[in-house]
Write a structure and sequence with these properties.
By secondary structure, this protein is mostly beta strands. It folds into 3 domains: 40 residues, no CATH class; 102 residues, GOLD domain (Jelly Rolls); 67 residues, no CATH class. The protein is 2% helix and 29% strand. The strands form 6 sheets. Strands 4, 5, 7, 8 and 10 form a 5-stranded antiparallel sheet that branches. The protein has a 4-stranded antiparallel sheet with strand order 3-11-6-9, with no helix packed on it. The protein has a two-stranded antiparallel ribbon with strand order 1-2. It is elongated and about 115 Å long. It starts with 8 loop residues before the first helix and ends in a 14-residue tail after the last strand. 12% of the residues are buried.
């Protein structure tokens, strides 16, 4: 169906069609004559069919097959990341290496650098880094004792990607924060000391020993009673002060100790 702007509206409205359905049917074609389709969507209506295609580009500036001597560094050439979300790298070689993805705004100051440890015994490795600046490059350092005998490094620019956080562990794993805290008192936490060990402190028992059995251990405790008061032991110390006779029982420890500021003691 065509619509001619040179023909008055009233005249065009009066046009007739051999088939009434022809007046409601239009076919869209591209420049090569291919039909452009429509698709039904969740709302029940038909809409113009569209698709998204990624233009994933292999970055020759940051790819290499040249072997590296011990401590030798491959440094890729700066490449623009504008229009790119994911910076992908992969490496397969015969020596342990360090792989770094660096990013810059001016191709001079490489302000961002994310590095991973490559272990050749584990096979090939790779990762995806989120593009945050205008340029990138890859650096690979041979950390092995001898030269590599084969090396395949690939850099890829990906416009659409679900990238992980920029900062990962040296093994490429997500970094999380874990906290050990008290079961009931949530304000109490466990800490890691400067040597990366669980920070612990000894709990001193400053008063006597545990009350086990039925006999008071007089090596550690001295009962003091007056006016028929009593002290017995059985799963703990039982003190009866006999208020009627104004009894005064007490249990004294035979141990002496130095006062320690903020030390926790248990009776």
């Amino acid at each position: 169906m065509s619509y001619d702007n040179k023909i008055p509206d009233e005249e065009q409205k009066q046009r007739t069609y051999e088939n009434a359905a022809e007046a409601r049917r239009n076919t869209l074609v591209d420049g090569s004559g291919n039909t452009i389709s429509s698709h039904i969507t969740t709302d029940g209506d038909y809409h113009l069919g569209t698709s998204v295609e990624q233009n994933v580009v292999a970055d020759a500036n940051n790819s290499s097959t040249t072997n590296l001597d011990p401590t030798e560094v491959f440094t890729g050439t700066s490449t623009s990341t504008l229009g790119v979300v994911g910076l992908q790298w992969s490496l397969k070689t015969t020596q342990n290496c360090e792989v770094c993805v660096e990013q810059s705004d001016d191709e001079t100051n490489w302000d961002l650098s994310d590095c991973w440890d490559y272990r050749y015994a584990l096979g090939g490795a790779g990762g995806t880094v989120q593009a945050l600046k205008s340029y990138w490059r890859i650096k690979v350092t041979n950390q092995g004792p001898i030269a590599t005998t084969s090396l395949r490094l690939s850099g890829v620019l990906c416009p659409i990607v679900e990238s992980v956080p920029r900062i990962l562990s040296n093994q490429g794993n997500l970094q999380v924060v874990a906290s050990l805290r008290g079961d009931e008192n949530y304000d109490r936490h466990a800490w890691i000391n400067p040597t990366s060990e669980l920070n612990t402190s000894p709990v001193p028992r400053l008063v006597g020993t545990a009350f086990n059995g039925l006999v008071i251990d007089e090596r550690f405790w001295t009962p003091v009673v007056t006016n028929s008061a009593t002290i017995t032991q059985g799963g703990g110390i039982n003190i009866n002060d006999l208020k009627i006779m104004q009894g005064s029982p007490s249990e004294k420890t035979n141990r002496k100790f130095k006062s320690v500021v903020k030390a926790t003691s248990f009776n």
